[in-house]
Design goal:
There is one protein chain. The protein is mainly α and 459 residues long. It has a single domain, classed as MetI-like fold (Orthogonal Bundle), CATH 1.10.3720.10. The chain has 23 helices and two strands. It has a two-stranded antiparallel ribbon. Strand 1 and strand 2 form a beta hairpin. It starts with a helix and ends with a helix.
């Protein structure tokens, strides 16, 4: 859950938490002098820390998913003469290495195509360079140069992940859902293993959740008074309450636009991804093509996607000019490119979680349309809700794709945070980020409650 929360928090919020805690105007006393002495190295440390927290969460989820896909038959044989920890280390983790390697490649692709965090510290990625130099007048050379490295990462992910795991998927499908989990095959963990597990859990939760939230809370009420050559720092609860109370009114437009774009993008991306996942579950070759296409689309830099949508709506087609200037449709389409890939993989995982006997029975008795409406709609309710939520949250914080395509007057929380971090408005930035974090947590809680209630009704 700590890893899922870290991934759900947009990258710009991780940057805001770092700046509030250990940035140039952060609340930690040591960083007030450390930043000046480190110079440019402090910015490199900040970029590395932010990307590492986000990337570690991705690797953790990929490792968990890969180890959970190991067939029960292998675990049954291993449970005879080994402990759960030894089995995980010597059997499950080696079998899951393609997932771990693919997650590592994905982190490299995200770092190479991200522009919001590195831009705060004066570094330039290929996405940032494209946005600064070629956003107004892109040409074929700039597009090819910008996409060469991301496409290389995409090909590596397809080779490592889809080729290897795709071949195993047919043999393993549904086997790990044979009525019991891997934890049922072993004796209860020893006291030492429980201590190790709890220590790792506490460390991950502290690193990924507690520290960023604490940093933002501390920054809201943090104040620095200049008295001669001395800087006196103190924390005031009245200041924190005042900043938090003023944020909803001050940034009401940002919250409204972010909510609207997140909901529209989440629903649209899920509607696009659901048919692809449903057909792919039935036809393996089609599924492989969609898998490869979504990986490629996810690795394309956001500014390039945004400018492509802008160029499309500049075509002399009746109605395009009106849609571009008076609606949020271009923004939703641009944000849906990456969001639809996330929704697709969530729905794909949900379809492969359906037991093989249930799937074959529904396929024999019903057509594709009737099966989706009568069977899949109930079995996939939780996956659909998670897909809408996840796609909406990821899209609402996708600043690189939003900046080039957002119409005048439309400002999201991500784009406003991007501007505040550049201008040095630290207190407003912390209050804006905290309310956004609260909205994300509330959305996750509501969706979790609704999906559990829906699952109980189906059972």
């Amino acid at each position: 859950m700590a890893a899922i929360a870290a991934i759900a928090i947009p990258m710009i919020l991780h940057a805001a938490a770092w700046e509030a805690t250990a940035g140039k105007f952060g609340w930690l006393p040591l960083t007030q002098t450390a930043t000046r002495s480190w110079g440019g190295f402090a910015g490199l440390v900040a970029c590395g820390w932010i990307h590492s927290i986000f990337g570690a969460a991705i690797v953790a989820i990929a490792t968990w998913h890969g180890t959970s896909r190991v067939p029960v038959s292998i675990l049954e044989n291993a449970s005879i003469d080994t402990t759960p920890l030894r089995c995980w280390w010597t059997i499950q983790l080696p079998l899951a290495w393609p997932w771990v390697l693919a997650a590592t490649i994905l982190n490299a692709s995200l770092a190479a195509t991200e522009m919001t965090v590195v831009d705060l510290y004066g570094y330039r990625t290929i996405a940032d360079q494209f946005y600064l130099l070629y956003a107004v007048d892109p040409n074929l050379t700039s597009i090819a140069t910008t996409t060469a490295l991301p496409l290389g990462f995409a090909v590596a992910m397809i080779t490592v992940l889809l080729r290897r795991i795709g071949r195993r998927q047919t043999d393993y499908r549904g086997e790990h859902l044979a009525g019991h989990t891997s934890s049922d095959l072993f004796e209860r963990p020893s006291r030492g293993e429980w201590i190790v597990a709890c220590s790792i859990l506490a460390f991950c939760t502290l690193l990924m959740i507690v520290m960023p939230v604490t940093g933002l809370m501390a920054k809201v009420g943090h104040d620095v008074i200049i008295d001669g050559d001395q800087r006196i720092a103190h924390w005031s609860i009245s200041r924190a309450v005042h900043e938090l109370a003023a944020a909803p009114k001050t940034f009401s437009a940002e919250y409204q636009w972010t909510t609207m774009l997140g909901i529209c993008t989440g629903i649209f991306a899920t509607l696009v991804a659901w048919p692809l996942a449903a057909v792919g579950r039935q036809h393996s070759r089609f599924e492989f093509l969609v898998d490869a296409s979504t990986v490629i689309l996810f690795c394309i830099p956001g500014p390039l996607i945004g400018m492509l949508i802008v160029q499309i709506f500049q075509l002399p087609v009746p109605g395009f000019r009106f849609l571009y200037e008076m609606t949020i449709l271009p923004t939703v389409l641009a944000m849906s490119v990456r969001a639809s890939t996330i929704a697709y993989w969530i729905l794909r995982s949900g379809y492969h979680g359906i037991a093989e006997n249930v799937w074959l029975s529904a396929r024999l008795d019903l057509s594709l349309g009737r099966r989706v409406w009568q069977i899949d709609r109930r079995l996939m309710a939780r996956s659909v809700a998670i897909a809408i939520l996840t796609a909406g949250i990821i899209a609402s914080g996708d600043v690189p794709v939003t900046l080039p395509v957002a119409p005048p007057g439309v400002s999201t929380v991500g784009t406003r945070l991007f501007g505040l971090l550049h201008s040095g408005a630290r207190y407003q930035e912390a209050a804006l980020a905290l309310w956004y974090l609260g909205f994300i947590g509330l959305g996750i809680t509501l969706i979790h409650t609704l999906t559990r209630f829906r699952s109980a009704r189906i059972k």
